[in-house]
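Structure in, sequence out. Go:
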């Protein structure tokens, strides 16, 4: 369609442009962890509000990823991607101006709507423009960019908070978002919905949008999060968390049933019947749950127990970013020499060792940087070693026409893991604390409560250690899942042909220009 989008000359320019959008989204998402105590103090937010400043964003993003994948097939990925960047950037500016915790939560929810459109279409756009022979490598680097932005966020957030106050984190992300809008408008091509993504039936009739599947997926994830945040949910009614938990189980069963009976479902459930794909997604979930909350735990501990500033807490977790950057780059080179099973298992093992060491170093006082840094580095290195081969293995384990929907499932699974990890950390770390101590823990002032804090501080640190041991166990379980991976993820020609013979699901992406 002339005039509606630039032609694809070099897909690397598309990667560069979308990488800027990825940085804006993930930098803001993870950077808020170190700024949370400052935000809580200055906006007078209670523990429940502090929870939802983090969880509200993650919930909306996770719930909308699959939905936006389908909408992108109908209206075009370029349009939805650019709209997402505009919404995200505008909401980021509003968040910087927040006069209250309620306003900030609302701005974060709007941010999440834009972020979901960016996350969903980022992978799909790369799948559109990169040829099949280099797609796995491009997606691996895309995961690396997201991972590095996530773990670099606390450093940027800490520095911005020190120089400009907590609003500085949002201020910094606005120009990055604007740069992403301009760059993407210049180089991201317009791929007609009828191009490689089958959104029309053979008779030319447009496929219906799976509204029921979309509503079920959003309701399922919402009730799941409410069940996992009982402190916030129980303020409405003490029985509500239990009802939400039961509802999440029922909704999940109904969602799977509906998806298996729809000719053009929101999710291609057939992919999950493939053992290799199911194992990869299970390992992705374990990795996300086991590692994502580490930055939050380290930041809360150093600010609440050691009295560290946001910048000091951000610097403390830099080894995670360094480890991820080094190992993810190395994993790309090692992928051709070792099997995905060997690399992902090694990555989860390194992560588990780092988590255990980090947990054992915690104490009611500040932990010296050089004591905890090696273990944080191991966590980052293990994460990077796991992510690149797991993503590439997933791409090899599905037919070319299913790579987009497979990545959609991976993104959703990963985001659910991030959400569960954060909910688990928030619920466990302040369990059993008095209301004043809980507020002080979120504000980063627990070590200033003198006599009151003596027992409360020890309980708080003990809670963090228990959480760390739980995360270590999850990483070990993830390693066991990786051991069950097949030695090869390349599909036999017969399997590839059989899967391609089925009608393509609504969220299928093109794999070549």
């Amino acid at each position: 369609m002339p005039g509606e989008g630039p032609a694809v000359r070099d897909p690397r320019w598309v990667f560069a442009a979308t990488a800027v959008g990825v940085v804006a989204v993930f930098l803001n998402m993870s950077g808020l962890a170190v700024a949370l105590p400052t935000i809580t103090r200055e906006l007078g937010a209670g523990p429940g509000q502090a929870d939802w400043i983090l969880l509200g964003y993650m919930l909306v993003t996770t719930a909308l990823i699959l939905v936006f994948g389908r909408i992108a097939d109908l209206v075009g990925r370029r349009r939805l991607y650019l709209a997402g960047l505009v919404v995200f950037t505008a909401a980021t500016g509003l968040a910087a101006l927040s006069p209250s915790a309620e306003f900030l939560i609302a701005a974060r929810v709007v941010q999440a709507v834009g972020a979901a459109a960016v996350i969903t279409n980022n992978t799909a756009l790369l799948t559109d423009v990169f040829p099949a022979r280099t797609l796995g490598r491009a997606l691996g680097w895309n995961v690396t960019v997201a991972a590095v932005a996530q773990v670099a966020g606390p450093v940027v957030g800490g520095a911005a908070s020190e120089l400009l106050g907590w609003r500085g984190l949002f201020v910094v992300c606005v120009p990055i978002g604007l740069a992403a809008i301009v760059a993407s408008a210049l180089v991201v091509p317009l791929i007609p919905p009828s191009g490689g993504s089958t959104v029309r039936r053979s008779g030319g009739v447009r496929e219906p949008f799976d509204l029921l599947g979309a509503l079920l997926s959003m309701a399922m994830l919402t009730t799941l999060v409410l069940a996992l945040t009982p402190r916030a949910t129980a303020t409405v009614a003490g029985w509500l968390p239990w009802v939400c938990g039961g509802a999440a189980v029922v909704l999940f069963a109904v969602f799977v049933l509906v998806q298996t009976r729809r000719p053009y479902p929101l999710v291609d459930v057939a992919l999950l019947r493939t053992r290799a794909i199911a194992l990869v997604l299970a390992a992705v979930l374990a990795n996300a749950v086991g590692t994502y909350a580490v930055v939050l735990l380290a930041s809360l501990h150093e600010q609440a127990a050691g009295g560290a500033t946001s910048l000091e807490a951000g610097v403390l977790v830099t080894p995670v970013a360094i480890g991820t950057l080094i190992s993810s780059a190395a994993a790309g080179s090692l992928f051709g020499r070792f099997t995905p099973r060997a690399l992902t298992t090694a990555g989860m093992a390194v992560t588990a060792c780092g988590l255990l060491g980090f947990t054992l170093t915690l104490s009611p006082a500040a932990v010296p940087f050089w004591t905890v840094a090696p273990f944080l580095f191991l966590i980052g290195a293990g994460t990077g070693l796991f992510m690149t081969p797991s993503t590439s293995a997933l791409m090899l384990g599905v037919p070319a026409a299913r790579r987009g929907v497979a990545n959609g499932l991976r993104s959703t699974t990963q985001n659910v893991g991030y959400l569960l990890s954060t909910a688990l950390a928030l619920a466990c770390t302040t369990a059993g604390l008095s209301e004043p101590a809980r507020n002080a823990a979120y504000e980063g002032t627990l070590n200033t409560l003198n006599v009151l804090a003596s027992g409360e501080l020890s309980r708080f640190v003990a809670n963090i250690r228990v959480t760390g041991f739980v995360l270590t166990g999850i990483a070990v379980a993830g390693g066991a899942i990786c051991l069950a991976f097949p030695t090869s993820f390349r599909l036999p020609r017969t399997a590839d042909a059989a899967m391609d013979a089925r009608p393509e699901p609504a969220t299928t992406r093109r794999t070549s220009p």
